[in-house]
Amino acid sequence: MIKYIEETVNYLHNKGFDQPEVGIILGTGLGQLISEINIIREVSYNHIPNFPTATVEFHKGKLIFGELAGKKVIVMQGRFHLYEGYTLQDVTYPVRIMEKLGIKTLLVSNAAGAINLNFKKGELMLIDDHINLQGGSPLAFKGVEQLGERFTDMSAPYDDALNSKFEALAQANDIKLHKGVYASVVGPQLETRAEYRMLKIIGADAVGMSTVPEIIVANHLNLKVAAVSVLTDECDPDNLEPVNIEDIIASAVQAEPKMIVLFKQLISSL
Known about the structure:
single chain; 6 helices; EC 2.4.2.1; alpha/beta; 5-stranded mixed barrel; Rossmann fold; globular; purine-nucleoside phosphorylase activity; about 30% helix
């Protein structure tokens, strides 16, 4: 993997990806942030050596370098998932690339279903902790110790200082920002009523199919991390309606401007 990482980083250096400070991963339906960026360079994933290719139709598949709120940023417009047939190492490969390019902070977004019924569709949740239900670890491979501490501490995977800033910014902008636990499942099928009940019992406030692998690797690389879920549906097992993916995407798009305000102001404060 070290050789692959070097090849990818050299390619991006030659394309002008020069010392980004902040990495951003945009989740399902969350692409409007791109219009706020002064884009310097952009490269399609399928042109980057050793990079996976996004296969989900609403994930654009571009790596973007530019300026946002006075900082150099590198943005993943579209991410990778286990349900696309990738390994956990594939899914998290871009995090390793962004760290080698120079980022110190990683901001992650996702679309998630609200397990906590006090949380409503269209609201935001700051991730305070997570539950890994994806059946594996992105650190479980031979030679991982050459890239960082094998037994990575996860007692506080989300940076307290960043989370406190997010909460203060939400209050200042009159944006409702819940705080809770995100459970990451494999997917791509959505959950049954019994699974939603289980998730609530084990302490999840929201559920999705991403984020946790990237957070684990970011901690492995000693990056400061924060993540925000855009809540796109309410997962009430006693009143469960069939879910329409187009509705989920529409909900994410509608709620995203609030997330953009928080991301821009947070980046400006770094």
